[in-house]
């Protein structure tokens, strides 16, 4: 059951000294859309079309402005690629999985050859960092082409666009931004997915009009290249597994997959044995069995819906 962001007319952006200013903008909250039935072989463009058609009355965007992604721990995560099927993007559905329908700013096609990046404008004259805009950009796009894209939306000539990739910790205080490496921009011929920028999904790129003079000029400021230890927080540990432990973990993973495959096969066998002709109240639940839901889950669903579970045994 996908959910969709709804919009509130207020959002915040950070100004000089780290103060937050309330501005008119869009801030996302989530509303449930409902149920849509697809198979693992349904192509993603068809999934988007089904969502747009079925939930148009709930504010779902048109198919060409839909981005589908996972949501975990209250954060938007993996973006589903359009050049594949629903099953290619969702290997397994587990309890609590959230799938989000996100409206894009412009029409886009997201494939394995794209990066999802956030572009944010820095205003030197006012020391104001504007809200970011997520864009799906080709890994092969050059810096020069990105500047042309920014020119189209802002009017700033490409020759006067400064570009820099910050660390996330540097954006917690806008006083860090003037000290970024604006004087050493990536070359125009560099590609977004290349070795110079080394960008990955979710990275932020800042840009500015280099004709604007910085309002905040610290005395003898040095470029910020590494976070101070105080701003890092606690270090996360990691475990190196022995060969024996790796073998055990792999065996457990295979056992879980085999168990899931067995449950799916049993559910499909049960579905095939249940007659649905003339029994519309049962057909819906038989379809859920065919889609791989376990018999116990389907029986529980019937109880919740107020349908006699014994009908599935007939």
From TrEMBL:
Residues 1-21, 216-235, 251-274 are annotated as: Disordered. Pfam families: CCDC53 (PF10152), USP47_C (PF19718). Residues 1-10 have a biased composition (Low complexity). InterPro entries: USP47_C, WASHC3. Residues 251-267 have a biased composition (Basic and acidic residues). GO terms for cellular component: WASH complex. Residues 35-215 form the Ubiquitin carboxyl-terminal hydrolase 47 C-terminal domain. This is Ubiquitin carboxyl-terminal hydrolase 47 C-terminal domain-containing protein.
